[in-house]
What does this fold into?
Amino acid sequence: MHVRFPDFRLGKVLATSFTATLTERHGDAVERIPTPHRLIDWLAVSGLAVDSCTTAQLDLARELRESIHTVATAAALQDALPAPAVHVINDRSAQGRAAALLTPEGERRWQLGSASCVEDALSVIAADAISIIAGERAGKLALCASPTCQAAFFDTSQSRTRKWCDMNTCGNRQKKARFNANHRKNPRPAK
Ligand SMILES: [Zn+2]
It folds into this structure.
């Protein structure tokens, strides 16, 4: 039987692309890695291909994902970072092996310690989250302005004034909502 799963929302930042595998956390949440196989697919398109994934490893991945979301949200609000979630990120970062490799084209590629090891892939994601939360990279953590989303995202725009985690989904929906609201107030075109 062929089952169609929700598409991925891939951004330029690994850690927040990963947290975007669950969207609409404050509305009708959409789980985009509902099965171990979908995590394998997500890792493959994110440059972290693994051979296999168990349900227990999927649980680890989701635990890391929600911990990154929690800590990144606190960082965006300049709140104290919640210790249990920090602990999960650190554990995942410490319990995987991966090496950064430079390709002949001058791009970075990840080589996991073992081809089948989800833990190695998660350590790369955890390290990426640490680098943006620690403020090591040019950009600013912010929260999506969509009330049903509120995802923490990494704003790398020049002015650091991005409002939505994703222009094509949250940004567009907000614009449409505003247009419809104005339209209701003003059914006839203004003079
Ligand atoms: Zn959003």
